[in-house]
């Protein structure tokens, strides 16, 4: 894998086997903040007033979305239980080479990198007010007794990884979302909207991150 400098100066990884970058070439950091933090986490917290929330990320990847969530939590009164699903975890050395330490408090960065390998298989208090558990599993093999308030759906695009966007995969994810829970992703297509509606979600078109006009936010009835 090779690093690519994106439009906002932050790095992403290009996965040659998949044929796509882990994040938007228009700005990895901007995409993470906009799609998942602003349109997902911040939206949910402000609309519910809850101070304890749970997040499920589909495609943990480089950990950028987790780090931005941790940065949000550090400046708020909320507590987050964070679970990331990752079928093909990146080595810690690659995580460290992302340069994402430049975008979070040093305490968050060091706690994350110190606990990254330990967080596979168990939930750890990586920072104050936030636990992390990375489930080393494929999506369809993921099981949990929990349901989640927010889902960050950050899989590779459907053109490269269509199985992740199938009705079966989306239905599997929907089982783990609480009523009133929020599903956010950078993409919005007719097939995705129809699938989420059929699963009992209210569909919202939200402004997209740089490079995309719109994104999808879905709220479970």
TrEMBL record:
Residues 143-220 form the MnmC-like methyltransferase domain. One of its GO terms (molecular function) is tRNA (5-methylaminomethyl-2-thiouridylate)(34)-methyltransferase activity. Gene3D superfamilies: Vaccinia Virus protein VP39 (3.40.50.150). Pfam families: Methyltransf_30. It comes from the Bacteria. PANTHER family: MNMC-LIKE METHYLTRANSFERASE DOMAIN-CONTAINING PROTEIN (PTHR39963:SF1), SLL0983 PROTEIN (PTHR39963). This is MnmC-like methyltransferase domain-containing protein. It comes from Sphingobacterium spiritivorum ATCC 33861.
